[in-house]
Amino acid sequence: MKSERIHRLQADLQQPLLVTGPRNLTYLTGFDSSNAAVLIEPDRVRLFADARYTEAGRAVPHVEFVETARNLLADLAKRLQGRIAVEAEHLTYAGFQTLAGDGLDLVPTRGVVEKLRAVKDDQELAAISRASAIADDALKSAVQEAWVGRTEVDLARRLKILVLELGGDDVAFDVIVGSGPNGARPHARPGDRIIEEGDLVVVDFGCLLNGYRSDCARTVEVGTLTPQLSEIVEICLRAFDVAISTIVPGMTGVEADKVGRQVIEDAGYGEHFGHALGHGIGLDVHEAPTVSKISTDSLVEGQVVTIEPGIYLPELGGVRIEDLCVVGADGLDSVTSLPARITVG
Amino acid sequence: MIGRCERIDFAELAAVALVGPANIAYFSGFRATPFERLILLVITPNGELRLVAPALEEEAAHAAVDDTVRCHIWRDEVGPLDALREALAGVQGPIGVEFNHLTLERAALVRAAATSSELRDCSAIVRTARLRKLPEELALLQRACAIFDDALTQVAKEVEPGRSEADIAARCADAVRQHGGETRGFEPIVLTGPRSALPHGRSGATKLAQGDLLIVDFGASFEGYFSDSTRTFVVGQEPDERQRELLDVVRRAEKAGIDAARPGVEAREVDHAARAVIEDAGFGEYFVHRTGHGLGLEVHEPPWLTATNEQILDRDMIVTIEPGIYIPGYGGVRIEDDVRIDDPPQVLTQVPVFV
Fold first, then answer.
1. B329 and B228 share one domain
2. Are B124 and B232 contained in the same domain?
3. How far is CA B153 from the centre of its chain?
4. A342 phi and psi, to 5 degrees?
5. Regions of chain A short of the pLDDT cut 50
6. Phi, psi of A340 (to 5 degrees)
7. Domains of chain A
8. Same domain, B158 and B143
9. Nearest CA to CA, how far is A339 from chain B (Å)?
10. Does the beta carbon of A121 lie under 8 angstroms from any beta carbon of chain B?
11. Is residue B62's pLDDT more than 70?
């Protein structure tokens, strides 16, 4: 499994690849450390870490563990030779300078391991599904409680506690709660605003379980909505339904994004949908593939993506409906098991 | 945010371009959880603040900053380069960046957007700016410490044989949240019995046993500011003679460290003051880490209270004082409080040392 992942990388190497991104390291070796690196060569795989990690490092199968000095990159600068590809999105500028300090020829690369991570194996799909189920249950539970009179912060805290009580390791990212006008900010940080009748409350959160993350969003309708808010909910829902039922593997990110975006644009709200239709998820909350206006990524069976159209009206409110989906052979299969529309009294 | 930019010693830099979340929060007021989209703050020597932020954060950015900050918003389909160019307009000369934060890829982006391609490390000068806390920061730190106090008082009641380290750690986090704090950024460290001798251990499945030492180390963040404190318990009973001795030595070491934490003193003198007490008692070889670290928008920041750091401490810096004794195979004791450097020093965490 992990060795397969390493073999796939070895097959495509143009030069040895030094993996330093923490998630990428975990993905390839199961090793969890803030000060480690893996060098992938056609016929050799070495895991480098300092003495604090020797015991754990030696236990990693399929790799050769090498104990380094505490200053990992300075050590590697002397230890390695020739031309090496580095992960430009993870290596800091300081790290780069240290590593290049002794004459190593460093080639910046992007997204090599991330590309591999995009297609999930069965174990990963199961882990993500379990995480998603916990988040679903947390929201189902929260929806049974009173919402009017509650602050956004209180609701966010409650969701986190529910996720933990239901067996999650943590929330996947800081819980987003945007009530009333605050819903117009897609990444609203929960505040002291008190939820009231007539509010749309955008709730966006996920569960972290065994390293894998889920992500979903629902816009809870508190009582009766104004006609305008009702309208954007209905349009968003349509965009959501069309996207989930129409998107198929083989589409590029742009094509898939368009499927959902077109509905919102045709309804006259294109300017109010300012983010991508979706994103891949796994060890990271955001990973390949991206479902957006500029994404040349292709949707491939086995990927896990969110579909999350939204409409945001500053000072009035917003709506976002998001499911976690697996890209199946014929289309998207929702992992999220919540009703698309949720109303509380 | 008035006056904060004036604390930056630009020297020959034409501007700084910051991506570190704590630095961006400090200078602009904008606290965003960075995902992968670029959020960057340019500050010029004449005090101009230019915030590059993705469209997704536009409303939040505008809500957080005042009108001294000019926002340069970029949309996903266009990418950040143009916004970055605008933010760097007029900047002629070397640009300060945080070498330890800025990725190789982003360094290339900054170069592409700037007229000069020379990047220099500005981490030290920017961190220096954040050393002495402003009144509004002190108030938030005070609150973070009060949350710790309340949370620990609550957790202390739950220390009993049979509970696991992880369980107590979860209780610490719950208690912090219940009292209005946040827990992101650090894991409570709860270690018992011989495991309390591991200064960097992680809370695990080990169950608390009657008579064992128990180290409980956690903190709270409040509006971005961190407290960080530690208490050592004996589970279910009074300390025995050996435990009492260790607790007494560490407590005296802590007091000596706190007492030394005054303006004009070198950081290493604080470490020496605490360490001397432990050495004189014969346990010097078991005090295996520095005496403390700075606290603020990061849970670990300068000044570092190590045996060699000559940095001069100044009024209103905030530090932890956390001496400890760790005897492998037996157990450890650590007592930690948060202190404002002053004459006399002010201890911000108030929960009694022996709860």
1. yes
2. no
3. 22
4. -130, 130
5. none
6. -65, -35
7. 2-117 (3.40.350.10), 119-344 (3.90.230.10)
8. yes
9. 26
10. no
11. yes
